């Protein structure tokens, strides 16, 4: 790949000293080794070479990779056309005496156009949606965000909803055109509230037997345990599995199960409007 | 027999060493790296400023993301964020504006090495302040900014260069021309960007091929079917299913072809020219323009420097492509 300098190099006259080259080569090798571990242990399993050994080696290099924000798999599938790839948003309603107080807070705010801000809000909603099925993690972000909003609004209770908006269904365009009603799922419908005698806001998911998950104090940090990146070993955590480590790793969603483009149109088209509820 | 083996081993080691040195350390001028610095810097400024409207609401004393909550989310990973220490509104804003100054100075190439490192530290700090908001564009931005810290990114198209040229013209720094033959560190930075970008494209293509919709040629509808999230409405494409198939499959093929054939000197210009409409098109279609522009910028590490105008008093330097 060097275009014109093979002969000039013969004397090594223009290269750094041998000592500098040796040291630099060592650093390059270590960096590329760390980088290769990242690529070999992608959380979506895109690179099928992950093993327990590779995952352990990556955990050794994790502090270095984390510090420079390189501990991400870089396997951008962009979209599989599955629910986890759809747009996610938050709708938060402050409550007072069981009644809505003011307008719902929409995140991303409606006035925010395309770009970084909107993507960050969508990403937050996506992260929460990914954690919904993980009992150990699901309350973390809703209580973080909801708790602060309660403080800001001097309120005791709010409804916390994560919506997932489906794209226009390609298989229904022929029947209903591009203006077909878009399906919106409620991925999460929860209540965040302060209860008497409990300092921290409490999270309860609607429609569940356990209405309140008591959180008296935040769980202690794991002290480096997550540096092992459990979500990065596809043999341990197959695609779609959500783990604390994987949440930070997965760049653009994880493969889900429900396809966007079913082989044949469903008997009853999904025409629910945004106010429809689907728990 | 043993002599032959020893001779072969020696030759192997020597040739590998020469090849390694040639690949990583052949000095190259800083034109390509300078261009990447400017494009990455502009992206970083855009990215950084986009935090402005939400800075207080997110990271302020009563913001949505308290430091303690973020630490809980991060779960004990090793990280460092300057913004974790900005615990008052005044400190937060001061830290923010200082970071913007660093990024601007790195972009214009003023004391480039120093300010590139500082700009990188600030950008990563902001990311670690709320990692739950991170997206793929953040990965590419930090990747480029990290490698710009290594190379002589301010050797060309920079204030550093301008000031150096003025000093040289004024005769106050006559020996400066000696340094114009190129820098090995520019080559190291460019090579690292090239290797990293190649790996990203291969990993992405493999990830895409794990999904059925990429094989059936309709995956891009996943973007197109959300016109509210796209810069350009491509929904008309539903009338041309073969075009949708072609674009979907063509994109994966392009990614793989770029990763492999970009290392071929003949194919390189074609792929570089093709990469502009491909990445811009995907960006407009998906709404992820910032991400695709940065991937495009990373691919420019393969650009032959002859494509760029030489700056004043440009001396002949080896080209890395």
How would you summarize this macromolecular structure in one to three sentences?
The complex is a heterodimer of chains A (279) and B (321). Chain A has six helices and six strands.
Please describe the structure with a list of short key phrases separated by commas or semicolons.
heterodimer; A: 279 residues; alpha+beta; six-stranded antiparallel β-sheet; 6 helices; extended; disordered N terminus; disordered C terminus; B: 321 residues; mainly alpha; 14 helices; globular
Structure in words:
The complex is a heterodimer of chains A (279) and B (321). With 279 residues, chain A is of the alpha+beta class. In chain A, 29% of the residues lie in helices and 14% in strands. Chain A has helices spanning 18-40, 52-67, 116-131, 140-152, 170-176, 244-249, and strands at residues 87-96, 99-100, 105-107, 157-165, 184-193, 202-205. In chain A, strand 1 and strand 2 (99-100) form a beta hairpin. In chain A, helix 1 packs across helix 2 (52-67). Residues 1-11 and 209-279 of chain A have low confidence and may be disordered. Chain B is mainly alpha-helical and 321 residues long. Chain B has helices spanning 2-25, 31-49, 55-59, 67-74, 89-108, 112-129, 136-150, 159-169, 184-209, 212-215, 221-224, 241-261, 267-286, 289-299. Chain B starts with a helix and ends in a 22-residue tail after the last helix. The interface between A and B is large, with 92 and 96 residues.
> What's the N-to-C terminus distance of chain B?
40 Å
Question: Which shape of chain A, going by the Cα principal axes?
Answer: extended
* SSE order of chain B: HHHHHHHHHHHHHH
Low-confidence stretches of chain B at least 5 residues in length (pLDDT < 50)?
Answer: none
Tell me, rounded to a whole number, the average pLDDT of chain B. Answer: 90
Number of helices of chain B: 14
Unreliable stretches covering 5 or more consecutive residues of chain A: 1-11, 209-279
């Amino acid at each position: 790949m060097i275009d014109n300098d093979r002969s000039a190099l013969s004397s090594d006259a223009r290269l750094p000293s041998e000592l500098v080259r040796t040291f630099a080569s060592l650093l390059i090798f270590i960096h590329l080794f760390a980088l290769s571990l990242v690529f070999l242990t992608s959380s979506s399993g895109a690179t099928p070479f992950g093993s327990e050994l590779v995952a352990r080696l990556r955990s050794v290099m994790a502090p270095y990779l984390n510090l420079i924000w390189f501990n991400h798999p870089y396997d951008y599938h962009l979209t599989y056309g599955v629910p986890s790839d759809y747009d996610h948003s938050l709708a938060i309603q402050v409550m007072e005496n069981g009644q809505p107080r003011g307008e719902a807070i929409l995140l991303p705010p409606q006035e925010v156009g395309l770009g970084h801000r909107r993507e960050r809000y969508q990403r937050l909603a996506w992260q929460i949606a990914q954690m919904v099925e993980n009992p150990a993690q699901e309350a973390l972000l809703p209580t973080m965000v909801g708790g602060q909003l309660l403080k800001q609004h001097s309120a005791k209770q709010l409804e916390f909803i994560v919506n997932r908006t489906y794209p226009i269904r390609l298989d229904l365009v022929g029947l209903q055109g591009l203006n077909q009603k878009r399906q919106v799922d409620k991925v999460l419908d929860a209540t965040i509230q302060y209860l008497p005698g409990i300092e921290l806001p409490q999270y309860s998911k609607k429609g569940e037997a356990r209405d309140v998950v008591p959180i008296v104090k935040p769980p202690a940090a794991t002290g480096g345990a997550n540096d092992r990146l459990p979500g990065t070993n596809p043999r341990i955590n197959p695609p779609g599995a959500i783990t604390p480590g994987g949440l930070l790793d997965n760049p653009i969603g994880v493969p889900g199960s429900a396809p966007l483009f079913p082989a044949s149109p469903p008997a009853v088209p999904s025409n629910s409007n945004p106010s429809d509820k689907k728990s | 027999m043993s002599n032959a083996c020893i001779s072969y081993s020696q030759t192997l080691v020597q040739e590998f060493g020469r090849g390694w040195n040639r690949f990583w350390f052949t000095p190259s001028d800083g034109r390509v790296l300078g261009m990447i610095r400017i494009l990455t810097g502009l992206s970083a400024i855009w990215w950084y400023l986009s935090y402005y409207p939400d800075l207080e609401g997110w990271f302020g004393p009563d913001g949505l993301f308290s430091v303690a909550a973020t630490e809980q989310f991060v779960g004990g990973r090793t990280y460092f964020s300057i913004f974790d220490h900005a615990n008052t509104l005044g400190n937060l804003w001061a830290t923010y504006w200082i970071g913007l100054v660093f990024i601007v100075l790195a972009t214009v190439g003023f004391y480039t090495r120093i300010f590139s490192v500082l700009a990188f530290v600030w950008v990563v700090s902001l990311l670690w302040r709320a990692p739950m908001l991170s997206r793929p564009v953040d990965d590419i931005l930090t990747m480029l900014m990290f490698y710009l810290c290594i190379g002589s990114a301010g050797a060309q198209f920079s204030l550093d260069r301008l000031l150096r040229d003025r000093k040289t013209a004024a005769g106050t720094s006559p020996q400066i021309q000696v340094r114009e033959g190129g820098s090995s560190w520019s080559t190291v930075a460019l090579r690292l960007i090239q290797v990293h970008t190649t790996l990203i494209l291969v990993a992405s293509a493999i990830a895409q091929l794990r999904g059925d919709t990429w094989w059936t040629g309709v995956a891009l509808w996943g973007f197109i079917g959300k016109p509210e999230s796209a810069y350009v409405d491509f929904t008309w494409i539903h009338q041309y299913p073969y075009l949708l198939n072609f674009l979907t499959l063509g994109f994966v093929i392009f990614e793989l072809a770029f990763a492999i054939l970009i290392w071929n000197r003949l194919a390189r210009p074609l792929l570089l020219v093709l990469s502009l409409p491909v990445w811009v098109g995907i960006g407009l279609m998906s709404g992820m323009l910032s991400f695709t522009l940065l991937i495009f910028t990373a691919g420019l590490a393969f650009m032959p420097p002859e494509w760029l105008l030489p700056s004043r008093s440009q001396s002949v330097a080896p080209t890395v492509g």
